[in-house]
Predict the structure of Universal stress protein family protein.
Amino acid sequence: MTLEVITISDSQSTVVLVAFDGSAEAQRALVHAAKLFPQALLQIVTAYEPLTHQAMRAVGAPGVAMVDLHGEIAEADTNYQQAVACGQQAVAVAAELGVECGAHVVESPQSTWSAIVDAAHALQADVIVTGTRLSSGGLKGLLSSSTSENVLHNAGMPVLIVPPADHSPR
């Protein structure tokens, strides 16, 4: 068996998608992504669910088609506005780290994890980096499935899950 060494040129840089929701855990994931992948192209993704989708789900309107609203209506959506602010926060954190990045706000019509995975494939990411809050265990831990866990199991690509700062190893 021979080992082949492949040199990657700048035009083939690694694309790292960083899932960012503004939390301390997401900021920690961004810091680790910048440290672990210093030559990579970071693509920061913030997923949001439009208020119209939340309202339709809340009233339990079965069979009612979800309508995508764009333009002025989407910009008036407070969830969209929060996602944009979150993306701007991520860009500021990346700038403090001396890292250039792309920032994307993606609509999450089904779930946050699926929006992250879809964005990773659309951006042709090589790896996804995400933080996690880690459940405290017990019944809640058994019944809940985290975004990071779903990304890990459904991405079809490498996923780096960064634990919270206060997480102590077992």
